Amino acid sequence: MEELLHVDHLEKTFTIHQFNDKKITGCRNIHFSVNQGEFLGITGQSGSGKSTIIKCIYRTYLPSNGHIHYASDRYGRIDLAEASERTMLRLRKEEIGYVSQFLSIMPRMTALEFVMESLLEMGEGEAAARMRAKAMLTHFNLREVLWDTYPKTFSGGEKLRLNLARAMVRQTKLLLLDEPTASLDQASKASVKERIQELKQRGTTMIGIFHDLDFMESVVDRTFRLQNGLLKEAAQ
């Protein structure tokens, strides 16, 4: 299979200026590759640095060292660790999706508009985007009465399902998932699993962080464990 992403010597160090510029290592010496269409799962204790790896790939964190080589449709092979902010913005709109367990959203945007926006950014027409957004909101069991309301009033589980609907309504080349089943009931987890399987069949490559190991093992192709800042592949 063709390699989509290759992470080499990735390191992220945080500087705490309030404490005399104290250095804290988020992750260090991280190496792994992901093939096109593969789903890689990452496990580890809370605070071990799992989200740091995902955020370095998505570039909400700027890596302190190392390389993240990505096979982009638009740019060819590119190092995400060194890409410009303008390039990363375009990649996020066109090729790389991200699901966070936390919802950050414009306060005057409805749930339906939030999901539609993800499709409109990729050039979909408004009518088609509206239809697909409604179908995805239904898939993730978000009641129709909520579609035209502001998500700041949603429960934690509803916000996460909305995040999932926005990220999974489109076909991205790479999808990053940060605890996609946190705070979800079993019915909602089943909806997530169904959509993940659909995306895998269509060729989306995924990297996911999980605490729910049973769920993870049912969807991923390979598993890595992060411990003491180091990432190691788990035996199959």
Backbone shape = globular
Mean pLDDT: 90
What is the total tally of β strands?
10
**The CATH topology:** Rossmann fold
Number of domains: 1
- What is the CATH H-level superfamily? P-loop containing nucleotide triphosphate hydrolases
Q: How are the strands of the largest sheet arranged?
A: 6-7-8-3-9-10
Order of helices and strands: EEEHEEHEHHHEHEHEE
Q: What percent of residues are in strands?
A: 25-35%
- Helix/strand-derived category reads alpha/beta
Radius of gyration: 18 Å
DSSP helical segment count: 7
Poorly predicted spans? none
Organism: Sporolactobacillus terrae
Pfam family, one: ABC_tran
Protein name: ABC transporter
Family: Belongs to the ABC transporter superfamily.
Describe the structure.
Belongs to the ABC transporter superfamily. It comes from Sporolactobacillus terrae. Keywords: ATP-binding, Lyase, Nucleotide-binding. Residues 5-236 form the ABC transporter domain. GO terms for molecular function: ATP binding; ATP hydrolysis activity; lyase activity. 37% of the residues are buried. The chain has a single domain (3-233), classed as 3-Layer(aba) Sandwich (Rossmann fold), CATH 3.40.50.300. With 236 residues, the protein is of the alpha/beta class. It has helices at 50-58, 85-94, 111-120, 126-139, 156-168, 186-201, 213-219; strands at residues 3-16, 22-35, 39-43, 65-72, 76-79, 96-99, 174-178, 205-209, 222-227, 230-233. The radius of gyration is 18 Å and the shape is globular. Helices cover 33% and strands 29% of the residues. Helix 4 (126-139) packs across helix 5. The strands form two sheets. It has a six-stranded mixed β-sheet with strand order 6-7-8-3-9-10, sandwiched between helices. It has a four-stranded antiparallel β-sheet with strand order 2-1-4-5, with helices on one face. The mean pLDDT is 90.
